[in-house]
Amino acid sequence: MSLRRRTTLVLAALALVSTAAVTAPADAVQDQKPAYPQIAAKPYMGWSSWSLQSTNYPGVNPDGPGSFISEKNILTQANALATKLKPYGYEYINVDAGWQDGGDEYGRPVANLKRFPRGMKAVGDDIHKLGLKFGIYTVVGLGTDVYRDGNTPIYDAPGCFTRDIVYPDLRKTNGWDAAYKINYESPCAQKYADSIARLFASWGVDFIKMDGVGPGSWKGAPDDPNHNNTEDVEAWWRAVQNAGRPMMYTLSWSLSHRYADVWKQNSNGWRIDTDVECYCGTIVKWDSSVKARWWDLPQWIDDAGPGHWNNLDAINVGVGAMDGLTDAERQSYMTFWAINSAPLFAGDDLTKLDAYGLKLLTNREVIAINQSGNPARPLNQDQLQQVWYAQNADGSTTVALFNLADSPATVTGNFDQLGIGGKATVRDIWANQNTRNVSGSVSAQLPAHGSKLYKITPDQYVPVSIPADLTATDVSRTSVSLNWRPSAGATSYQVFANGKQVATSTTPGTVVGGLQPQTQYTFTVKGVKYGRTSDASAGITMYTSKSGGPVRYEAESPTSTLTGDASVSGCTLCSGGSKIGNIGYSSTVTLNDITVPATGTYLVKIAYTDGDTSRQSMLTVNGTDSYWVNYHGLGDNDWGTPQVTYLPVKLTAGSNSIKVSNAGGYIADIDWITV
After folding, report:
1. Which of 50, 167, 400, 424 has the maximal Cβ count within 10 Å?
2. What is the pTM of this model?
């Protein structure tokens, strides 16, 4: 669930949920080692109830919002998964919000017996009999309904009561402000988390989803400590490790990336985004909010790995009419989750899977890509036609082409940018077709929101592969900062400017110095191993800054043109103490008089603030060339801390204008642009 879903459905679910969280010294967390095999060694696969609980699709929730959730319906889905999907690796049955009805005499959650008349242990037992695993839902904080004037005793903690684990002012926390914040200075707080984790273990729980966690859930900025739940997460991680049963522990929703290290050390995964469900007459819609994942994921890619994965939410591709998507969108949805090693948990009615949906969910090659645990990354995101890729240990490259535009378009992945040399065999995975002796690129004409998924295997082994994805990340009058993806086999790299070697590096990145101001350079890189070198990477061409540069152009400058509701607002940490906000839809800002001496490509850097998960804008140069910009968000409602992004932009000799806009949504607040 997520904050923007303040509907009757969410409120009804919350009325049935109360739980807690707890903590102790952070260094103790790192010292603990599970006594059982690693949990979440690969992205988990299964099914979750929330997608069906959330939808208004006819017949799914006949007795009102969220009424789908019940013992009968959960076990029906479990039986369907065991029959149709278990042979392909799907194994978790996760019961989401709505199963709980208050707490027992110790404030521990109890089942809603109208929905689960035999209690949750019996449900878990039946799920286990099918050879499946049992997941359960809780929220962060102390449920207000189990506080009971502070007189609720804590299980197996003599002398500890709920009044001992909250703050005197009963401050609220979580994404809905629906629980009391727990005070971890009290030793009783950890005892409370322990009591619930052990209760879950006694029920045979294999998976715990904790919701409403901050920083994240669009709360928890530095000036909002009540919604910083890092201590809760650390305490629950300790509780889970000591519960006597292996249980996966995951966090939700829209977690803040600036706390990624905490999440990695103290959980098995985290939702990087809001709910995928549309809360409408279908389960999802492309625009609400499937497509957002392409933009929200990139800053998280390097955080995923064995034991903790980026969670993109449920995969609803199995029932066409119910899903609310075209077949092209369904394939893109499944492709994106698979290439990014996201947990694959269906949300559809598994008893009604159509032939195409079953084909998508059970393609063994696609599942193998997902389970390899090798997340893909975008070559660039400056257009809606995007190429995502992952370099594999066997020398092959997984490549996905996506057309995120609302009309058909051609998408091309160039081999030199992907680090592929010579001829290769291209396998179209969804089409189950191989094409041999391919060189130069892969390209496809794709429908709106369509995709292709390839495995590209070079025909010949090379001891050192071509460095992929060469990118400039900063520029000055006399230097350029470069990054690239590691080259297989390389022990060092040679960097060239205009064909002349200018640097050597032992890492996939360097700062090239000694350059001339206002001079055009083409940079390439070669991998090196024992005197052998790879072919050169794809080149990137750009100008260094002019003498006296880089030049900063303030968005709030009197020379800027504002339209609609775009306006100047205060920002203590921003340059000049101000920025331009309220940009989006019909409201725009245009920075004028951006002057360069010569026509060519320049690295434009943009300072912005974004407390959302991410936002996007179009940069339009001189009313003609357009580029998309992806602003990575902090996810914690912090709109006062500037960040920087960059992209190469073609400018014309003399004065230029750069318009920042998005006709389809709000964007980040803009501080300045430098050239």
Report:
1. 50
2. 0.94
Query: For residues 129 and 308, what is the distance between their CA atoms, to the nearest angstrom?
Result: 27
Amino acid at 404: L
Sequence-separated (6 or more) residues with CB below 8 Å from residue 675: 545, 549, 550, 551, 553, 594, 596, 602, 603, 604, 651
For residues 626 and 619, give the distance between their C-alpha atoms in angstroms, rounded to a whole number. 5
CA distance 657 to 667: 19
Instruction: Find the mean pLDDT for residues 390-404.
Output: 97
Query: How far, in Å, CA of 340 to CA of 371, rounded?
Result: 10
The tokens for 156 are: 């197996």
Q: Which amino acid is at 512?
A: V
For residues 554-571, give the mean pLDDT: 98
The bridge status of strand 625-632 relative to strand 614-621 is: antiparallel
Q: How confident is the model at residue 37 (pLDDT cuts 50, 70, 90)?
A: confident
**pLDDT digits over 109-121, tens only?**
999 999 999 999 9
Please name the amino acid found at residue 674: T
pLDDT in tens, 461-483: 999 999 999 999 999 999 999 99
The amino acid that residue 145 corresponds to is D
Please report where in the chains the tokens 């703050």 appear, as a residue.
167
Average pLDDT of every residue of the chain: 94
Give 25's pLDDT tier (boundaries 50, 70, 90).
very low
Strands 92-94 and 45-48, by their bridges, are parallel
Amino acid symbol at 164: D
Q: What is the dihedral of CA 648, 650, 651, 652, to 10 degrees?
A: 160
66 three-state secondary structure: coil
Give me the residues paired with residue 166 across strands.
182
- Strand 589-596 versus strand 561-562 pairing type: antiparallel
Concatenated DSSP letters for 304-315? Answer: -BTTBEEE---B
